[in-house]
Amino acid sequence: MDWKTCKEKRLAKEIGVDTELIKSLKISAGKKTSSAKLLEMNETTASSIITLAYDALRELLEAIAIKNGYKIYNHECYTSFLQSVMDENEMAESFDSLRKLRNSINYYGKDISIDDAKIVAEDIEELMKKCRPLLAED
Fold this sequence. Notes:
- Helices cover 70% and strands 4% of the residues.
- The chain is globular, with a radius of gyration of 15 Å.
- Strands 1-2 form a two-stranded antiparallel sheet.
- The relative contact order is 0.17.
- It has a single domain (3-135), classed as Nucleotidyltransferases  domain 2 (Four Helix Bundle (Hemerythrin (Met), subunit A)).
- It starts with a helix and ends in a 7-residue tail after the last helix.
- With 138 residues, it is mainly alpha-helical.
């Protein structure tokens, strides 16, 4: 879905910058990241670790959107936000792949191997590292 469609369908709207919400989302993302790291990676926890890490990433993206004056109500629209508003095409493609994997896990019961989960967790961490400078104080 492109950014124009996200805005037309009110899946993304312009808002005022809310610094307290941004701070709260960053803290929440940090807690989810810490929780994911506390879990030992095994067949039982692999999907849960990926889901927690993805949620932390999504919260950072929400904070970036709010910092830029947008509230986004659809995970797919974060992809178009990254492409169109932030001009971060590589990040957008990475996030979209992770979004699809997370949806497969959450909504279709996809199982993920330990080896694949380790790679995905690293990919999420790399994307989170790229998000942090976008949240730096001006």
